[in-house]
């Protein structure tokens, strides 16, 4: 088994473990569309890799190649050290896959579905029965075991679909937008199952367009990595913490009663403002900074008579959504209105902190837009 590109800490008895997934120089064409352009990605045991990107970026093509549903035009895939091209049956037995499209048998009960998928993955009948009970409890399906899958709600079918991929406890799990269209309860159940898998040593590749979900996947024991695809290439592959620290800043939003002052009226020299980090809307000024502690008092002191019209100051913390928007260029937009604030008197405001960008009516409203589902065809 191959052990190249072995991750730090992935050792057993002093010997390196094979990567759960090693994809090297993957190339794929869909007709005249270059879907993957030499993609290199690896995942170590116990790691969650969040695979992000716009519609058509290549995420589903990547998952389809790794799962053996598509053949690459060039490049190799190794799963737990096994070459997918040379030994596909063995390699595919080492992974669990939950694609975007639901794959359950509506005429079978939940129990029958799970036992069928378990036995199909190589479990004995007895082991399949035991694992069915375990995974049903994990994803809150126990009370539905004897109900027909066709009679389940959309969220319940989504949980069953995900459970089928986890039944045989594979070393690698591929989840392609597993919570799309799911309710809040289903989403949290799936996220908790993913966290538990990683903590137990399973490697997980998780694609999604819902970026707050990625931050929610962080666990105390497992490392969360993020890879961003754009036009079939990997733009960034780093830990969540590294990505946010490198590509996101704090945003200070100053809201006024009426039009904000013009930039020409303020002296911004000497203030810690990120390059191209200024936006002006009909009632606010927004400044990106790495040091809000010095920016806030510095700008407040320069407002002059405009300070009497200052209503609120929002501090928007660095986040994956803001980092993603910066990397993609014009990809994703936070859509969350900041919470309430306490006004302490004319010209006096209380600074409020939020993890999301407040909705703006000016240029900020054009920064990002969370993309919808990515279609498989024509990627």
Please write out the topology.
Blueprint: E1 11-12, E2 15-16, E3 21-30, E4 33-43, E5 48-53, H1 59-66, E6 74-79, E7 82-83, H2 88-92, E8 95-98, H3 110-120, H4 125-138, H5 154-166, E9 172-176, H6 184-199, E10 203-207, H7 211-216, E11 224-230, E12 233-239, H8 240-247, E13 250-256, E14 278-280, E15 284-289, H9 292-300, E16 310-316, H10 320-328, E17 343-345, E18 348-349, E19 351-354
Parallel strand pairs: 5-10, 5-11, 8-9, 9-10, 16-19
Antiparallel strand pairs: 1-2, 3-4, 3-6, 6-7, 11-12, 13-15, 13-16, 14-15, 17-18
Helix pairs in contact: 3-4, 3-5, 5-6, 8-10
Fold and architecture overview:
The protein has 379 residues and is of the alpha/beta class. It folds into two domains: 11-245, P-loop containing nucleotide triphosphate hydrolases (Rossmann fold); 249-366, no CATH class. It is 26% helix and 26% strand. The chain is built from ten helices and 19 strands. Strands 8-9-10-5-11-12 form a six-stranded mixed β-sheet, sandwiched between helices. The chain has a five-stranded mixed β-sheet with strand order 14-15-13-16-19, covered by helices on one side. A four-stranded antiparallel β-sheet has the order 4-3-6-7. A hairpin with a 2-residue loop joins strand 17 and strand 18 (348-349). The longest helix is centred in the middle third of the chain and has 16 residues, at 184-199. The radius of gyration is 24 Å and the shape is elongated. It starts with 10 loop residues before the first strand and ends in a 25-residue tail after the last strand. 43% of the residues are buried. Mean pLDDT is 83; it is low at 1-13, 330-350 and 355-379.
């Amino acid at each position: 088994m191959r052990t190249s590109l072995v991750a730090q800490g992935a050792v057993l008895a002093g010997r390196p473990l094979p990567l759960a997934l090693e994809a090297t120089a993957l190339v794929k064409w869909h007709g005249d569309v270059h879907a993957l352009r030499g993609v290199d990605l690896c995942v170590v045991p116990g790691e969650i890799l969040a695979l992000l990107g716009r519609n058509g970026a290549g995420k589903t093509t990547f998952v389809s190649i790794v799962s053996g549903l598509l053949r690459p035009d060039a490049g190799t895939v190794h799963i737990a050290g096994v070459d997918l091209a040379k030994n596909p049956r063995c390699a595919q037995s080492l992974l669990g896959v939950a694609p975007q499209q639901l794959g359950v048998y509506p005429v079978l009960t939940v129990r029958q579905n799970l036992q069928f998928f378990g036995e199909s993955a190589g479990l004995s009948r007895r082991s399949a029965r035991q694992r069915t009970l375990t995974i049903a409890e994990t994803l809150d399906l126990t009370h539905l075991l004897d109900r027909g899958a066709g009679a389940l709600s959309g969220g319940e079918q989504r949980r069953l679909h995900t459970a089928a991929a986890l039944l045989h406890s594979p070393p690698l799990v591929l989840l392609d937008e597993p919570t799309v269209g799911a309710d809040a309860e289903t989403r949290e159940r799936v996220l908790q199952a993913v966290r538990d898998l990683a903590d137990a040593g399973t490697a997980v590749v998780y694609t999604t367009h819902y970026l707050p979900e990625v931050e929610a996947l962080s666990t105390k024991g497992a490392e969360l990595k993020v890879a961003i695809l754009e036009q079939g290439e990997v733009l960034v592959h780093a830990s969540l913490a590294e990505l946010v620290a490198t590509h996101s800043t704090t945003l200070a939003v100053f809201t006024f009663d009426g039009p904000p002052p013009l930039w020409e009226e303020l002296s911004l020299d000497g203030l810690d403002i990120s390059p191209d980090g200024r936006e002006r809307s009909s009632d606010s000024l927004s400044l990106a900074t790495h040091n809000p502690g010095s920016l806030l008092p510095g700008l407040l002191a320069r407002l002059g008579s405009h300070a009497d019209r200052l209503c609120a100051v929002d501090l928007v913390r660095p986040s994956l959504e803001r980092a993603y928007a910066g990397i993609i260029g014009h990809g994703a937009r936070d859509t969350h209105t900041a919470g309430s604030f306490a006004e302490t008197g004319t010209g006096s405001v209380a600074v409020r902190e939020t993890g999301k960008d407040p909705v703006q009516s000016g240029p900020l409203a054009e920064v990002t837009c969370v993309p919808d589902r990515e279609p498989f065809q024509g990627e």
